[in-house]
Request: fold
Amino acid sequence: MTNRNLVSIHDLHVAFDSELGTTEALKGIDLDIKHGRTTAIVGESGSGKSITALAMMRLIQRPGRVTSGQILFTPAGKETIDVLQIPDNSDELFDLRGGKMAMIFQEPMTALSPVHTIGDQVTEAILTHRQVTKAEAFARACEMLKRVGINDAEQRMNQYPFEFSGGMRQRVVIAMALVCDPELLICDEPTTALDVTIQAEILALIRELKSALDTSVLFITHDLAVVAQLADDVVVMHRGRVLEVGTVRQILKRPVHPYTQALLAAIPTPATTGRLDTVAELLTEENLLPYPLVTIKDDQKVALPIDQIPEALR
Ligand SMILES: Nc1ncnc2c1ncn2[C@@H]1O[C@H](COP(=O)(O)OP(=O)(O)OP(=O)(O)O)[C@@H](O)[C@H]1O
Ligand SMILES: [Mg+2]
Reply:
């Protein structure tokens, strides 16, 4: 495992324009995704998790726009590029989206067409990005479907999404995302729409495929239990800012920011509901002032003034 940065985001700002004015969805975020690791972004609804991922894929749409910043991406053996500088409609952008980076969403039907067979859709995903024959693509599609745990893949290739359960559809979407060997798999709440046992299966699958295929993963969730199971590194976001960054151990064992501490306190236990809106009750406005991120002990980062950081960690 190396510590090379696959993606390094610097001071990224995203704004949404409306008749009422402009709202900043991302207010200057910095984050790194290390090669070969699973980085989780955790935060409440509206904190800017999805917007961050969409910006990386160049999928922010009007009325949203990136107003400034850099998204540096360094594929293996290649030069660093700033994703934000890639020309619109270029081959390079096409190669980035779905080729070098692939994304899966909460709702599998976002990525699937109801009117095409599963086999055609996975085959098409390969043909779009790789120069292989249709027969080769079809064989690879079938192999990938087996790999993600679809039994009788040969027969299932001829079926339509409605003939698959929600969990099976999400497996298909994972297969589609991974057929082109992306360097980064972005998962935006991929299990939220699934019931609990299926959630666990999908998480296990992502973990297994990540190590088997040597893909780095960015995993977006509001669920710290998922973070604990899956992440190597954690980025805590709130209202368009990054408040804390660390390894999963650091974030779970010695969270420094009051917001991270409140998130941890809101994890459901048999005695509490664990609703994230209880987080707000544990915080004051002063806890959430927009301080810059500073690096503390062992490369942990936190957005606090130095005098609010325990001396032993400075
Ligand atoms: N289409 C839009 N129009 C206007 N503002 C938007 C739009 N999409 C996002 N935003 C703004 O960006 C902020 C961050 O949105 P984002 O979707 O990234 O949140 P999130 O952290 O992914 O939340 P969730 O957990 O609910 O998915 C929102 O609070 C909102 O202010
Ligand atoms: Mg989201």
Q: What stands out?
A: The pocket of magnesium ion (ligand 2) is lined by residues 49-50, 188 (CB under 6 Å). The chain has eleven helices and twelve strands. The radius of gyration is 20 Å. The chain has one domain: 5-313.
